[in-house]
Amino acid sequence: LLELGCHVIMVFDGRPLPAKKNTNEERRQRRFDNVKAGELLLSEGKINEALGKFKRATSITSDIVESTISYFRNHAKVDVIVSPYESDAQLTFLVKEGFADIVITEDSDLIVFGCEKIAFKWNCESGDCMIYEKSQLPQCFSGTMRTQFDFTKFRRICILSGCDYLQLLPRIPSYLNMPKLRVTKEFIDDFIRAENTFIYQVVFDPRQRCQRPLTKYLCCQKDSYLENNENDFASDEQFLSKDYSYAGEVISSKLAVRLALGNQVWNTLKIQLSDMFTCFDNRSIHIELLKVESV
């Protein structure tokens, strides 16, 4: 991409998302189990089988992320953002707000987040890929789903088909056509939280140097996300985000910038990454984030 003259924005996951706590714990347990199984197979001389287990136990450490960020920050045409929580929401926001033209990923969750344009299965040598465009999504269906396409209904179908934010009832996808299906109030509440996580997950706005929800909170009466008080302490969104804490909470602008740059917000003992992030807003005005030394 750089050889072709493209400007690349690399986006990394940030803090663990509360709504994904159960999923993360399950994955952590699976990695642990795979390590134990791999060690057992290795002791039995079954090297190939052991390697397969060890591969399933692979995880990306913070040191790997930090070294990657430090390396690519030296490239003139590469920007790096660490999202407040999950990169899916952040990538969706960057395309939605015109910071990026397209997302290259293998994660189909971006479709459910409402990302406008995605490149799947991209081959870096040939350039071949599968392009997804949200505007063309209705063409993938037939009948009423095509002629009266409703993205909200589509998102809910995807959630019920299985997502990281909802613990599904056993075999519920096969029950979706059952008109007399009854579920508990607890499941309905969990479903609402899962959907809200796709809608209101907290992201970082590099133009305004603050965190905000991917979609404006329904109860927010302001026309702008920028109206922090003179002490840069807390906006209305920061307070309102507590109602959607499972989708992430908005923190102060100073902390938000430090996190977006790749610094560990609550660890001031580590070397702090200086602010080299630059971008263009929709009016093509060049802006730079202020360097944040400490809080």
From TrEMBL:
Keywords: DNA damage, DNA excision, DNA repair, DNA-binding, Excision nuclease, Exonuclease, Hydrolase, Magnesium, Metal-binding, Nuclease, Nucleus. One of its GO terms (cellular component) is nucleus. Its EC number is 3.1.-.-. Belongs to the XPG/RAD2 endonuclease family. EXO1 subfamily. It is found in: Nucleus. Gene3D superfamilies: 5' to 3' exonuclease, C-terminal subdomain (1.10.150.20), 5'-nuclease (3.40.50.1010). 5'->3' double-stranded DNA exonuclease which may also possess a cryptic 3'->5' double-stranded DNA exonuclease activity. Functions in DNA mismatch repair. Binds 2 magnesium ions per subunit. They probably participate in the reaction catalyzed by the enzyme. May bind an additional third magnesium ion after substrate binding. Pfam families: XPG_I. Its cofactor is Mg(2+). It comes from Angiostrongylus cantonensis. Its main location: nucleus. Transmembrane segments: none annotated. Residues 74-143 form the XPG-I domain. The keyword DNA-binding applies. The lineage of its organism: Eukaryota, Metazoa, Ecdysozoa, Nematoda, Chromadorea. One of its GO terms (biological process) is mismatch repair. This is Exonuclease 1. GO terms for molecular function: 5'-3' DNA exonuclease activity; 5'-flap endonuclease activity; DNA binding; metal ion binding. It comes from the Eukaryota. InterPro entries: 5-3_exonuclease_C_sf (IPR036279), PIN-like_dom_sf (IPR029060), XPG-I_dom (IPR006086), XPG/Rad2 (IPR006084). Coiled coil: none annotated.
